[in-house]
Each structure stands twice: as structure tokens, then as C-alpha cells.
Automatic annotation (TrEMBL):
SUPFAM superfamilies per UniProt: ABC transporter transmembrane region (SSF90123), P-loop containing nucleoside triphosphate hydrolases (SSF52540)
Keywords per UniProt: ATP-binding, Membrane, Nucleotide-binding, Transmembrane, Transmembrane helix
Broad class of the protein's primary localization: membrane
Signal peptide: none
Location of the ABC transporter domain: 350-584
A molecular function GO annotation: ATP binding
Designated name of the protein: ABC transporter ATP-binding protein/permease
Pfam entry (one): ABC_membrane
ABC transmembrane type-1 domain sequence ranges: 37-317
Localization per Swiss-Prot or TrEMBL: Cell membrane
Length: 591
């Protein structure tokens, strides 16, 4: 089944950080203004009908029951028709409001996720995934709620004005009496929300804390079990859960203190209308119908006044959430596509010229590296741990940009390539391959989703993965467990190599990508690679003598520099530093 085409977000976030959060979000509101306006119009119409009904009840009582000049059934019929109309309008208002809300949420999610996907390695080195997750979910929800529901609550509040005007026209003094408790309800509502606001933040952050504990322990369950730390981790979760419980209890206590007062105030309003209105009826200054209608208004009007507090708090919450979202959106990606891209003929020539690089935290990883790997050559990078070997791989694929010097692929600066072209030219297989919870076919075809089964199988054969995949009950259609944990480490690495091979990059970098693979199988993989493409350049970060043995040339890396180069035998004979590294950092699996 072909995937459903993605609808591009209709609105965006204004890029100017000096604008207020609402002005920056305004393009999203504007993009959905037709839906929002429809929902608000329906909601306004529904409220007008709602205000109208008590007035009809009043006229019905006064004319059909008290004065006996009207026909009761006419009023009952009219009220029934209005009630049905109100039901229909309210249904439409709700429908359109929710549609507006979810359309806005869709846009916000797409904008944030697209930006996250564009961010470079350096951003993810600093970011915490739990934090990003919460920004991409609850913060987006908070902003969406305010943008969509805020105007609707405001409409409900304006209707209070309409109802008050109607009451004034019927009986001004009694209208004032009916409205007396409303400001008190509004003030109490605002105060209650103010008291609840910090606690609700606490609840959110503590819930995120629980989610982090659960997430980490599910992800890291193998380590937890390996160290028999189950009970300790359960205790950690219990403590996090207890903090949530405390926050929720505090929240309930605050609500418990305010809500009875807020709930009883309208009853006080009803009593006052009955008392003052009753006296007026006895004096002939009001009708019985008026008292009944005003009773309905007192009950009808209190929710908008209660919601005033809510809307203020929603606004504060949305403002804070929007800032957290904007923080992500305002972070520029360090690795940008070039303005005038160059795309030379692919040959597989890799050259580092005086390359210097420090990670964002300041750790210097490359310190003037000079390295030239010719087309078709297989070079092994050998060095002590932390010497900068993996960094070479990351810079060749431009996951980061050099701080000084040059990285050239086929004579062109990697910064001048369009990023997708560069990533097609330089394939990287990391030591810890990440597999998605999809079929093996889809995992291997990740770089080229349109690849045929034949292409996938060819790549798998070359990577030494075909034999084990074929033996699985569902073969290439087997869906691997989360992160590929249903496969062995070596099998995962072979699938990752197949994934890189399918793209057929002229430069292939295996960053210790065969560490979990049997030496014999590794040899077969390299033979297959050699057969598959004679002129492919391969750089292997090697930690085993067996892997080193597969290379044409070995480059010794120390403190971010290439300090020696030659065949394994040459270095072994002439380079004491090479011998030292072999002794301490390379496992003694014979070639
Ligand atoms: N994401 C990162 N953020 C900060 N520093 C990093 C990061 N990745 C690596 N480093 C540091 O950069 C230096 C070079 O790391 P690199 O991973 O390139 O070494 P390596 O030679 O591949 O090591 P190993 O053989 O242990 O894999 C080390 O000091 C390391 O601690």
C-alpha cells in the first residue's frame, strides 16, 4: 500500500524572536482562520439560542400561566425547537473547534519534528531525548489548547455580556442582583488557578521524571538485569511516583479548598434572586417568569466567569510552552546545505588537510589531521582509544564541520556538496548499529526505500547477512524487535553493513562495524566488498588484528593526528608507537 502523502503544514512560526509568542504563532492561527471562524460563529449562535430559551420560558410563564393570555403549547413547542437547534449548532461548533485544534497541533508537530530532523549531531550531543519528547508532546498540546480553545472561551465570556444586556432590558435592578456573585466567582477562579498553576507545572515535570525512569529502564533493561538491580530500579521508580502523588495530592487540596466556595456562590446568587425578585413580585415590580428566567441566567453565566481564571492560566502555560518550543526552532543547525553546491564525478578520493575539530563541549578530537585515501584503497585507522578515529568518519560524512582545515571528497570540500549527495557518496556503518522496528527488508532498504527485493538480497549477500535472514521464518519480512534486539550483535552489524551497501557509496567507512562479527565471516564480507566494487574506497576503524589484515594500508592516529602510515608489516617493523598501540588497544586475534 503506498504511503499516504504528507500534508505540508499550512502555517509556520514567525522567525523573529523579538516578537511576542502569540505574534510568532499567529501564522498558524491565520492559516486555519476559516475553520476557527466557523467554529466561533457556531459557538456564538449556539450561545444566543441558549440565552434566548430562558427568556421564552419567562414569557411562557407570564403569559400562558399567570395572565392566561397565551397558548402554553406554542411556547413549549418553540422551546423544543430552540433546544434541538442549539444541540445541532453546539455539535457543529464542537466539531469545528476540535478540527481547528488538531489541525493546528498537526502543523506544530510537523514544524517541530521537521526542525528536529534537520538539526545536526552537535545539537543531539547536548539535547536530552526525554526533554525533546516532552517539548514535542505536552508543550505543543498546551499551545494548541490556547490557540484553539482560548478564542472559544472568550466567545463564551462575551455571551455573558449579551445575557446581562437582555436581563437589564427585562428588569434592571434584578439583573444587577443576579450578577452580584459573578465578579466574586471570577476573582476566586483567578486566585484558584494562580494557586494551582505552580503545582500543575510540578505535576508535569514530575510525570516527565517518571516517564524518564520507565523509559531508561526499559531501554536499559539488559544492564539492569545484568547487575541484578531490578529492586533498586523499582525503588527509584517508587520515589519518582511518590513525588507525583505528592504533587497530585497538593493539587487536590488546593482545589478542595476553593471549589466548595465557587460551587456554592451561584446558589447564593439564586437565593438572592429569589429573595429580592420575590419581594419585587409581591410589590408588583416583577413577574414570576422573570425570577425563573433569571435563575437560569445565574446558573448559565457562572461557567464563563469561572473560565476567566482558566484562560489566564492557559495563556501563561501556553506562553511558557511556546518559549520552550521556540528554543528548539530558534536553534540554528550548524551543518547547512551550500548556497552554490558542487557535485564532482564520484571517484572515492578522501583527503583531510590539516583538519582540526573540537566537539561542542571543547574536547579537541582532531588536531591538524592530514590523511589521503586514494580511490579503491582500503585503509585501516588504528590508534589508542579516544585518539580521534571515529571523529574522522563523522567529519568525512559531515556530521560535524571542521573548525579549521579541509575535508575533501573527490577534490571538493564536503561543505560544498548538497547534504543528500554527500551522504550517498560516503556510507558509514557505526559500531552500534541502530535498527528500526520494521522488517529486515525495510531496514536494509532504509537509504533507498524504493529498492527491489533483488537489490536488498544482493546487498545482504555482500554483507554476509543473507544466510541467517533466509533461515528466519519470515525471511526478509521478519520485523525486528525494538532497536533490533531480537538479533545478535553480529547479525545487527551485518544488516547495518547491507543497509550501507545498498546505497552503493563510493566511500564506505566501517567504524569498528565488524567488532561483533566472526573473523571468518568478516573476511568473507571484505572479499565480497572487493568483488562487488573494485574501485570502492573503504576506511575501517580497526580494533582487531584480523580487521587490520584486510587493509591495503594502515594509518596510525594519535591525539587527532596521523602520525604514521604503511602496511601492517612495515609499521610493525619500523614504528614502535604502532607496536605500543597494538599491545594495548588491539585484540590479538590472528590475521
Ligand atoms: N559527541 C562527543 N562530544 C564530546 N566529545 C566527544 C564526542 N565524541 C567523542 N568525543 C571525544 O573526542 C575524542 C575522540 O573521540 P573518538 O570517538 O573519535 O575516538 P576513537 O579513536 O574513535 O576512540 P575509540 O577507539 O575508543 O572508539 C575523545 O576524547 C572523545 O572523548
Amino acid at each position: 500500500m503506498p504511503p499516504v502523502p504528507r500534508r505540508a503544514p499550512k502555517g509556520g512560526i514567525h522567525p523573529d524572536p523579538s516578537k511576542t509568542w502569540l505574534r510568532r504563532a499567529w501564522p498558524i492561527v491565520r492559516a486555519h482562520r476559516a475553520l476557527l471562524a466557523t467554529s466561533l460563529t457556531c459557538s456564538f449562535a449556539g450561545l444566543i439560542v441558549q440565552v434566548w430559551i430562558p427568556d421564552l420560558v419567562r414569557i411562557g410563564i407570564d403569559e400562558a400561566l399567570v395572565a392566561r393570555t397565551g397558548d402554553l403549547t406554542v411556547y413549549v413547542g418553540l422551546i423544543a425547537v430552540l433546544a434541538v437547534t442549539q444541540g445541532v449548532i453546539n455539535f457543529l461548533a464542537r466539531l469545528y473547534l476540535l478540527r481547528t485544534a488538531y489541525e493546528m497541533e498537526y502543523d506544530l508537530r510537523n514544524i517541530v519534528f521537521t526542525h528536529l530532523m534537520r538539526m545536526s549531531y552537535a545539537f543531539y550531543d547536548r539535547a536530552q531525548s526525554g526533554e525533546l519528547l516532552s517539548r514535542a508532546t505536552s508543550d505543543i498540546r498546551a499551545v494548541q489548547m490556547y490557540l484553539a480553545f482560548g478564542p472559544s472561551i472568550l466567545v463564551q465570556c462575551t455571551i455573558a455580556g449579551v445575557a446581562f444586556a437582555l436581563m437589564l432590558s427585562i428588569n434592571a435592578p434584578l439583573a444587577v442582583v443576579a450578577m452580584l456573585t459573578m465578579p466574586v466567582i471570577a476573582v476566586l477562579g483567578v486566585r484558584m488557578r494562580k494557586a494551582i498553576f505552580p503545582v500543575s507545572w510540578l505535576i508535569q515535570s514530575r510525570l516527565a521524571g517518571v516517564a524518564t525512569v520507565v523509559d531508561e529502564n526499559v531501554q536499559g533493561v539488559r544492564i539492569v538485569k545484568a547487575f541484578a538491580a531490578e529492586q533498586r530500579q523499582v525503588d527509584t521508580l517508587a520515589r519518582a511516583a511518590d513525588r507525583v502523588r505528592w504533587a497530585y495530592t497538593t493539587d487536590s487540596r488546593i482545589r478542595g479548598r476553593w471549589l466548595p466556595v465557587m460551587d456554592n456562590l451561584p446558589r447564593l446568587g439564586l437565593a438572592m434572586v429569589l429573595l429580592i425578585g420575590g419581594l419585587m413580585v409581591l410589590d408588583g415590580n416583577a413577574t414570576v417568569g422573570t425570577i425563573v428566567a433569571f435563575n437560569s441566567y445565574v446558573l448559565m453565566l457562572q461557567p464563563p466567569f469561572r473560565m476567566l481564571g482558566m484562560i489566564i492560566m492557559m495563556g501563561q502555560r501556553a506562553a511558557a510552552s511556546a518559549q520552550r518550543i521556540y528554543e528548539i526552532l530558534d536553534t540554528p543547525t550548524e551543518v547547512l546545505d551550500p548556497v552554490t553546491p558542487v557535485v564532482p564525478e564520484p571517484r572515492g578520493d578522501v583527503r583531510f588537510e590539516g583538519a582540526r575539530f573540537a566537539y561542542p563541549d571543547g574536547t579537541v578530537a582532531l588536531d591538524g589531521l592530514d590523511l589521503h585515501v586514494r580511490p579503491g584503497e582500503t585503509v585501516a585507522l588504528v590508534g589508542a582509544t579516544g585518539s580521534g578515529k571515529s571523529t574522522v568518519a563523522r567529519l568525512a560524512a559531515r556530521f560535524y564541520d571542521v573548525t579549521a582545515g579541509l575535508v575533501l571528497i573527490d577534490g571538493a570540500d564536503v561543505r560544498d556538496y548538497p547534504l543528500p549527495t554527500l551522504r550517498d557518496r560516503v556510507g558509514i556503518v557505526p559500531d552500534e548499529p541502530f535498527l528500526f522496528s520494521v522488517s529486515l527488508h525495510d531496514n536494509i532498504a532504509f537509504g533507498h526505500p524504493e529498492a527491489t527485493r533483488e537489490q536488498v538480497v544482493t546487498a545482504a549477500v555482500a554483507a554476509g547477512a543473507h544466510a541467517f535472514i533466509e533461515k528466519l521464518p519470515e525471511g526478509y519480512d521478519t520485523v525486528v524487535g525494538e532497536r533490533g534486539y531480537t538479533l545478535s550483535g553480529g547479525q545487527r552489524q551485518r544488516v547495518a553493513i547491507a543497509r550501507a551497501l545498498l546505497v552503493n557509496p563510493p566511500v564506505l567507512i566501517l567504524d569498528d562495524a565488524t567488532s561483533a562479527i566472526d573473523v571468518r565471516v568478516e573476511h568473507e564480507i571484505h572479499e565480497a566488498l572487493r568483488d562487488l566494487m573494485h574501485d570502492r574506497t573503504t576506511i575501517v576503524v580497526a580494533h582487531r588484528l584480523a580487521t587490520i589484515g584486510l587493509a591495503d594500508r594502515v594509518v596510525l592516529i594519535e591525539n587527532g593526528r596521523a602520525i604514521a602510515s604503511g602496511t601492517h608489516a612495515q609499521l610493525l617493523a619500523n614504528e614502535p608507537r604502532y607496536n605500543r598501540v597494538l599491545a594495548t588497544n588491539v585484540s590479538e586475534v590472528t590475521i
